[in-house]
Amino acid sequence: MGVFTSGSDRRLSITSLLFFIVLHSLLVLAMLQWVARSLMPVSYFFGTSVEAGAVGHEDGRWLRAWRLVATPAAANRLNYGQLCTLSLLHLASAAVTYLAVTYVTVAPFGRYAAQTRVPIAIPNTLSWMLQEAPTVWNVLFFVLYEYPSAYQQYHTRSAAGGTDAQPYVHLVMEALALLRLPLLLFLFHYIHRSFIFPLFLGRSRNDTPLHVTLSATAYCLFNGRLQLLASITLYPVPHDAGGGASLVEFFFNRGAQSSLCLVWLLALVALGGSYCFFRGMYINMMSDYMLIDLRRQRQRPLARDHQTAEVRALKQNYAIPYGFYFEHVSCPNFYGELVEWLGYAVTVLATGVVRPHPSAAFGALGFGRAAAAFSFFVYTAANLVPRAVCHHAWYIHTFGDAYRALHRRAIFPWYRAAYREDRHE
């Protein structure tokens, strides 16, 4: 029993698939640990200095390993520098992705899966789950392991000794309290994308090449961690300093330091960003499920005598979608996702401008959070816009004048993008 893709013999047995799932899971777990401890760590301040006697080489190495710092300003400074550096890296990768997808090759999955030479492919449903889930695992790793472990490591050498011990459940709840509204939006999208959406995909004739699954996994590990860093309350505040304030407390507390007009303005911007997020998610989900339903109906438009065998074969598996935003653009699912992440970025900006705890680095932290969120939006646009242009050209190449007569745009209802049909000939 095997898995086939796009007419080429790239099959994996059930045993091989199970082995791949286990191997992939172990790899993701190891990568989560490495990313959190070495590549993208959080700097912590727990409010009490490490005991004076702990100044040796071993203790210094221990402090560096767990990123425990002496002051909140130091934690803010380190975390801000990390956010800015990673955001710049994200923007650079967006530029590389845009150039690659636009001028080198189409992303080789879905209708373009046959264009890759990679000899192994993963079932579409399984690939979606494996590659998107690391975004959720990032948050669970921080809440269930990283934050409790960092505090417990601090506690073992703090001056408080055994007088300030906290049960594990309390530390988990405290870690949850550090999560901000934008991260909940982020998780809402990826929980659906990882565990619900794949269940409706059904069997596809185009499975996902192995290297696409692995590269998407790596990206979700990186971006999931980056958005986590952008949306937790930095610095992580100690137990006795009022850490983990709710969103309502956040707005009310900062009223003492900011004008009331600014507080309400930022609250309205956050609400507007959240509305934009959910509106975009609705467009994205509706469009995706309409495409899935269209595929299940197996609609087959009539073939004309002058059409090539390749085009007739494509028409046996694809049809022109109608209704909803498909009346305006070829890829409303991509358009909705861009609207979604723009709303997310605006929400991050609005909820990260001011901080009730005094710190010289606070304003910079708000900028770092916004930079991380907007870098994600830019990367999404760099990936989806060229793909939408390519999809638009594919529809015209496949359905000819019948599709041209619809006068649809590629992705933005107000902008007609250029396209190149030669990429599909």
Automatic annotation (TrEMBL):
<keyword id="KW-0492">Microsome</keyword>
<feature type="transmembrane region" description="Helical">
    <location>
        <begin position="12"/>
        <end position="36"/>
    </location>
</feature>
<feature type="domain" description="3-oxo-5-alpha-steroid 4-dehydrogenase C-terminal">
    <location>
        <begin position="371"/>
        <end position="413"/>
    </location>
</feature>
<keyword id="KW-0256">Endoplasmic reticulum</keyword>
<comment type="similarity">
    <text>Belongs to the steroid 5-alpha reductase family.</text>
</comment>
<dbReference type="GO" id="GO:0030154">
    <property type="term" value="P:cell differentiation"/>
</dbReference>
<keyword id="KW-0560">Oxidoreductase</keyword>
<dbReference type="GO" id="GO:0006694">
    <property type="term" value="P:steroid biosynthetic process"/>
</dbReference>
<feature type="transmembrane region" description="Helical">
    <location>
        <begin position="255"/>
        <end position="278"/>
    </location>
</feature>
<keyword id="KW-0472">Membrane</keyword>
<keyword id="KW-0812">Transmembrane</keyword>
<dbReference type="InterPro" id="IPR039357">
    <property type="entry name" value="SRD5A/TECR"/>
</dbReference>
<dbReference type="GO" id="GO:0005789">
    <property type="term" value="C:endoplasmic reticulum membrane"/>
</dbReference>
<keyword id="KW-0443">Lipid metabolism</keyword>
<feature type="domain" description="3-oxo-5-alpha-steroid 4-dehydrogenase C-terminal">
    <location>
        <begin position="207"/>
        <end position="348"/>
    </location>
</feature>
<feature type="transmembrane region" description="Helical">
    <location>
        <begin position="88"/>
        <end position="114"/>
    </location>
</feature>
<dbReference type="InterPro" id="IPR001104">
    <property type="entry name" value="3-oxo-5_a-steroid_4-DH_C"/>
</dbReference>
<keyword id="KW-0221">Differentiation</keyword>
<dbReference type="GO" id="GO:0003865">
    <property type="term" value="F:3-oxo-5-alpha-steroid 4-dehydrogenase activity"/>
</dbReference>
<protein>
    <submittedName>
        <fullName>3-oxo-5-alpha-steroid 4-dehydrogenase 1</fullName>
    </submittedName>
</protein>
<keyword id="KW-1133">Transmembrane helix</keyword>
<keyword id="KW-0521">NADP</keyword>
<dbReference type="Pfam" id="PF02544">
    <property type="entry name" value="Steroid_dh"/>
</dbReference>
